[in-house]
Fold these 2 entries.
Entry 1:
Amino acid sequence: MTNIEKYIQSFTAAFDIEAEQCEGLEYQGIETWDSVGHMGLIAELEDVFDIMMDTDDIIDFSSFEKGKEILGKYDVEF
Amino acid sequence: MIDYNQILNIPPYSYRKKEKEDFLTAILGELTKHHYQKSPLYKRMMDTLNFNPEAVIKSYQNIPFLPVSLFKELDLKSINDDEIFKTMTSSGTTGQAVSKIYLDKETASHQQKTLVKIVSNFTGSSRMPMLIIDCSSVIKNRAMFSARGAGILGFSIFGANKTYALDDDMNLNLEVIEAFLEKHQGKPIFVFGFTFMIWQHFYKELKKQNIRIDLSQGILIHGGGWKKLKNEAVSPQAFKECLNDVCGITKVHDYYGMVEQTGCIYMECEEGHLHASIFSDIITRRPIDFTPCDIGETGIIEVVSILPKSYPGHILLTEDEGVILGEDDCPCGRLGKYFGIHGRLKNAEIRGCSDTYESQK
C-alpha cells in the first residue's frame, strides 16, 4: 500500500467515512472528527506509519491537507 | 478582540504579580463585556448588581463572580444554539442537578491547547505510553461528557498506546496491565486517573491481591478531589506513600480543576503546592463579607479563567475552601500564586468527580 492509501485508510477507519470524503476534510467538520475521533485518528496514523507525534503536531493537525504536511516532519512522504 | 493564539504561546508560569494582574484585568474585562452583550441572563445579573462592564475596571478582583452552582439552575451561554459544539456536565449525585457547560469550537479548542501548555510544563513535551486508571466506557457518549470523560480525553493527548487498567465493572485488568508494562519496560510511563478511582480500584486491589507492579518510571497525574478519601482518612502524603509501596511510583502530581473552567487546571508542583498559571488565577474570599483574604488566611475560593468565551464562566465562586500559601516565591521556581485546598465548604452541596460515580452504582 502506498503512503497516501494508508493515510486515507486511517481517516476512513477513524471516522467511519468513505475514501471520497477525505479530501478537504477539516477538524470538527464532521460529527465523528471531534476530540475523541481526533485521538483515534492519531492512534491510527502512529500505528500505520510507526511514528510518535509531538503534542503540538497533534493540536496543529487541523485538516486532511495539513496532516500531510505534518507527517512530512516524520519522513512520511506523499 | 482577545488574541488567544498569541496568549497561549506565553510560558504558563512566567508572570510576576503586577504583570499578571494587568494582563488578567485586561482580558477578563474584555470577556465581561462580551458576555454582557451576548448573554441576556448575565446582563440581567450584572445590571442587578449595578455593575457597568463599560466603566474602567481597576482590577479583575472587582468584577462580580457568579456562584458556580448557577450553572446547574440556568442555561448560561453566550452563543446561539446552533453554535453549540459540545455540552459538558459536572458531577452530581442522583437527584441533584448537574452543571451544563456549553462549548463552541473555539472555546473547546482553547481548552485543549491550554491544558497542553500547563501539563507539559510538568511532563515535558514528548508523549509517553499512557495507562489510564479507569474503564474505557466513560467516554462513550461523545456529545455529552461527564467531568470524568472530559478529564481522560483532555489528558489523552499526552499519551500514546492508551491502555485502560480497569474493565467496565471497574475490576483491575491485570493481564492488560502486565502486557502494557512489558511492552514499555524501562520507558517513562504516563499514568492518569481520578484520585478516588486510583485509591479504590487500583491501590486497594493491588494491596489486597498482594501484587506489586513496576511503575518506577511512571509519572502519575490525578485529580477529582479528596472528599471521599478524607472520609477514609487518607492524606495526600499517605496516598503517595501507599502508591509507592504497591508500584514504586515516585512522581505523583495532584491537580485542582473543575468542569466549569476546563483547561485551566492547577497542578501540584514538586513541593506539594497547587499553582495558578497565567491563564487563570484564584482569589480566596472571607465568608463574612467576600473581601479578599490575606496570604495564609483560609477562605472561599474564587477561580478566574481567560478561556470561557462561549459561556459566562470566567469568574466563579466555588464551593471549596482553601488558602493561598504565597505568590511568586515557591521553591519550585514557578511564578504566580500557589495554594492548598482544604475541601468542600460545610453545608455546600455534595459534589465532586468521584460522586458522579456513586450515582452509577
Entry 2:
Amino acid sequence: MKLVKKKKAPPGINTSALPDIVFMLLFFFMVTTVMRETDLKVKLVVPQATEIQKLEKKSLVSYIYIGPPSESFRAKFGTAPRIQLNDAFAVPSQVPEFIEKERSARSEAEVPFLTTSVKADRETKMGIVTDVKQELRKANALKLNYSSSLRTEVY
Amino acid sequence: MKKNRATPEVNAGSMADIAFLLLIFFLVTTTIDTDKGISIRLPPMPEENQPEDNLKLKERNVLKILVNSADQLLVDGKLVNIKELKKTTKNFIDNPSKDATLAESPQKAVISLKNDRGTSYNTYIQVHNELKAAYNELRESKAQAEYGRPLEKLTKEQGDEIRDYYRQVISEAEPEDAGGGN
C-alpha cells in the first residue's frame, strides 16, 4: 500500500461571502460618511494646538469660517480675510441672524447645547475674530470652539 | 402549451462588483474629520444698566497678559517668550514659593488676557493653548498626588473636585487698536 498520496490541485478560495463583506464595509462607510454641506469659499489652515478637545455632536455645531477668499473669488473680494456663513460671504453684523437661523432649525431642547465652531486661518488678524466674538456674545451663543489641529511637537 | 417554467435564478455574480463600486465611492467621499479645537466659554454681554466692573480684584491675583500686534507677550509687565508662558502661569496659579506678588490661592487666580486687533490668530490660539496646558498639568499633578491616579481615571466627584480646585478663569478684555499690525 502506498502511503504517499497523490498531490491534489489546491482548492479554490471560496468567494461566495465576498459580497457580504463588501456590503458590510459599504454600510459602515455609508453610515459614517458626512458629505460636506458647504463649499468653502475661503482658504484656511487652522492653527495647531496641543490641548484640543473633540466636539461631541456634529449636529449641534454651527460653523463660521474666516480666511482670505480662495483663488476664484480674489478678483471680486480681494485678499483680506472675510467671514463665510453657510455659502456666502458675510459681515460680522450678520452673525446674530445666522445664529438665530441655526437655533430655529433645532428643537428647543437642543438649543443650549449648540456650539459655534470658528474655523479661522492661522494668518488671520484678531480684529475680525474679535468682531465675530462680540457678535456671538450679543447673540448669547457663548459656547465657542476654536478649531485647531493637533500639534505633535512640543516646545 | 408549455409548462410554466421555474423563475430563472438572478445572477448574483456581479453583485460584488456593484458593491465595490459603491464602496469606493463612499471611501472617496467620506471625511472622517472629527472636529477638534480649543473650547472656551464667552462671558455674557453685560446688562445695559449694569455698573461697569463692580468687582475689584487684588492686583496680585491677576495675571495680566498683553499681546501686541507684533505677537509679543507682556506678562505682568515683563516681556515673556511664549515658550515660558506655561511655566510662568503655573507658577502664578500655584505659587509654591508663597511669593507676595503671585496669586493667594489657585481659586483666586484670574488670568486677564488682552490682545491687539493686529495680533495674529495663531498667536492668540497659542496663548490660549499654553494657559489651558498650565491648568491641565496642575490638575493632573494634583490628581496624582491626592489619588495616585491620572485625572481621567478618577470618579466624577473626585475629578470635579480637582477641576474646581484649579478652576480656569480667563477674562478677556476687548482689544484695542493700537495699530502697527494691519
